[in-house]
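Readers of this paper often ask what the protein records in our data store actually look like. Below, we set out a record of this kind in full and without editing:
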Amino acid sequence: MLTMTNFQDLLDVQLGKVYVNDQRYLLVNEAALGTLRHDLVSTFGIEMAKWFLHRYGWSCGYQDALSINKQFRDETDEDLLMLGPKMHQPEGVCEVIIEKVHVDPHEKRFYMEGVWRSSYKSEQHINHFSLTKKMTCWDMIGYFGGFSTGVFGKRIIFKEIKCVNRGDDECRFVGKTLDEWGEDIGKELQYYADNKIAGKLEDARRYIQNQYLLFKRTIHIHERLNRMVLAGDNRYMIIESLGEMINSPVIVEDCNFEPLVWWAPDKDKVSEYFLNNFWEESSELRNLPGPRQSHA
């Protein structure tokens, strides 16, 4: 029977290095990891942070599975699957209590349910963000899925169904194969997709570039209008120039919201700009030379 004692026997501590079955491990301060989580959420948003930590956890779990498979070749899948979650305990991540597990390697059926207690991830998330309406043990969900997939040989996805970060009394998880989840797991699959971060960063770059171009255009318009004001141009000339630059109708209203000066790119469509009623009543509008076609 495979136990945590077997796992602890694999530890090899050398000067500046810690190995488990030839795989190097690190001891990291929990507050530093909490800061990393905070910065991911604050910089990229909660959905992007969730994607990143899901995939990070998956990679950690999958690599642990490869290491365990190599060391314990003669153990059953069920024994190996029970060991993976328990590896979180000596690492200081949390206490793992497996309540239900069913493994059928021939039918490729899998079910696991349990609880995380004393999770540092929950503590750190609450420290930085207080309680939330969402489940937040993203990297642990990823880890369990990656480890179980690496051992079982079929893709397994875990899902958190209760979380102390949203006020529940415990963090409870369930794991099944994709087939057994069916449509219930569709939304979670997006967090395991490749290259999402590259696409998001490209979207952000385009948004920043467009905002920069808009800013440059706005500065150009302001400078041109300032020159016209300083040159003593009348307000109709200024409004016409503004309308041509932005290719849009421009209306200047008085304190009673009645039009004083207006410009439209198409004279025949004046009615579309709600000026018909004011055209007959306003002598200033009536005496203007009227809207002219845009030369821009």
User: Anything to note?
Assistant: Residues 278-282, 288-296 have pLDDT under 50 and may be disordered. The radius of gyration is 32 Å. Residues 196-230 form the longest helix (35 residues).
